[in-house]
């Protein structure tokens, strides 16, 4: 399978994200990853698939590299690594300029919005994230 289409998601840092040490609390990174992954899904999936599927996080593995502060301009770049059955595996890199602040590997389960049971995505939906001829960023 070819590389997936990357998705850049601008992160808004709220004063409530700041902890007692003056930088972003670790829990806020999870919120950002969830927002970025769901934004990626809504941007590339067809409207019908967005309306009939939900996503729940199964696992997050976060490597923190540098602290993040209130006035930082932060971008989360999302890459869908693969889809297996009802599961999707993502890599999200959170940056301030060239500085990597955190790297996150996460797995998600796709649910049927009506039954709330795991649901496989149709091949034509998955292909929107891995277009033929797209071999990644230049």
> What is the radius of gyration computed over CA atoms, rounded to a whole number of angstroms?
16 Å
Averaged pLDDT, please?
93
Tally of structural domains: 1
Question: The CATH topology is what?
Answer: Thiol Ester Dehydrase, Chain A
**Overall strand count:** 5
CATH level-1 class: Alpha Beta
The outline comes out as elongated
Structural class computed from helices and strand pairing? alpha+beta
By CATH, the superfamily comes out as: Hotdog Thioesterase
Pfam families: 4HBT_2
InterPro entries: 4-hydroxybenzoyl-CoA_TE, HotDog_dom_sf
Keywords: Hydrolase
GO molecular function, one term: fatty acyl-CoA hydrolase activity
List the helices and strands and how they pair.
Blueprint: E1 7-11, H1 26-44, H2 47-52, E2 53-64, E3 74-84, E4 87-96, E5 99-112, H3 123-126
Antiparallel strand pairs: 1-3, 2-5, 3-4, 4-5
Organism: Sphingomonas lenta
Family: Belongs to the 4-hydroxybenzoyl-CoA thioesterase family.
InterPro entries: 4-hydroxybenzoyl-CoA_TE (IPR050563), HotDog_dom_sf (IPR029069)
């Amino acid at each position: 399978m070819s590389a997936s289409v990357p998705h850049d998601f601008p992160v808004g840092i709220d004063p409530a994200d700041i902890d007692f040490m003056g930088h972003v609390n670790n829990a806020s990174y999870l919120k950002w990853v969830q927002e970025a992954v769901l934004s990626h899904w809504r941007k590339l999936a067809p409207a019908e698939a967005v309306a009939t599927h939900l996503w729940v996080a199964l696992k997050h593995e976060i490597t923190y590299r540098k602290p993040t502060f209130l006035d930082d301009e932060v971008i989360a770049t999302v890459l869908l690594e693969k889809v297996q059955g009802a599961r999707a595996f993502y890599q999200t890199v959170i940056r301030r300029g060239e500085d990597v602040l955190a790297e996150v590997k996460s797995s998600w389960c796709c649910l049927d919005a009506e039954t709330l049971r795991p649901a496989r995505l149709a091949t034509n939906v998955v292909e929107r994230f891995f277009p033929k001829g797209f071999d990644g960023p230049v």
